[in-house]
Amino acid sequence: MKKTIDVIVKMPDEKVGHIETIPNELKAMQELVGGYIETLTLYNGAVLVFNEEGRLRDMELNFDTPMCNILGPAFVCGIDGDDFDDCPMDLKMWKDLLVAWGN
Question: Which of 101, 100, 94 is nearest to 10 (CA)?
């Protein structure tokens, strides 16, 4: 398992987001999203990570997906078996995905 991973972080006040290197640890991921994490598998090994209690905590809308509304901070990373890994997409692919979802 990698000690750090490169992810795309998307805050509610950002149009697309930014790339950031974070520790590949649960505590760091929870701090980034502001609580317990939930994951949503996207495609090509990409996973969306966000706060599982976003609605209960009345967090700000970040963006919509076809499956759910994402509230509060979120990030996209990759997966390698049972571990998280570097994000398999670049910012242009992520922006295109957000646009396709109507954001």
Answer: 94
At 27, list the tokens: 């505590």
84, 6 in Cβ contact below 8 A? no
What would the mean pLDDT of 15-41 be, rounded to a whole number?
97
What pLDDT, in 10s, does the model give residues 40-96?
Answer: 999 889 999 999 999 999 999 999 999 899 999 999 999 999 999 999 999 999 999
Q: How many residues are present in the chain? A: 103
**From residue 34, how far is each of 50, 83, 89 by CA, in Å?**
9, 21, 24
Give the span between the Cα atoms of 11 and 77, in whole angstroms: 15
- CA 68 to CA 89: how far, in whole Å? 21
Q: Domain coordinates of the chain in residue numbers?
A: 4-100
3-state SS assignment for residue 3: coil
Q: How far apart are CA 78 and CA 88, in angstroms?
A: 6
**What is the three-class DSSP state of 92?**
helix
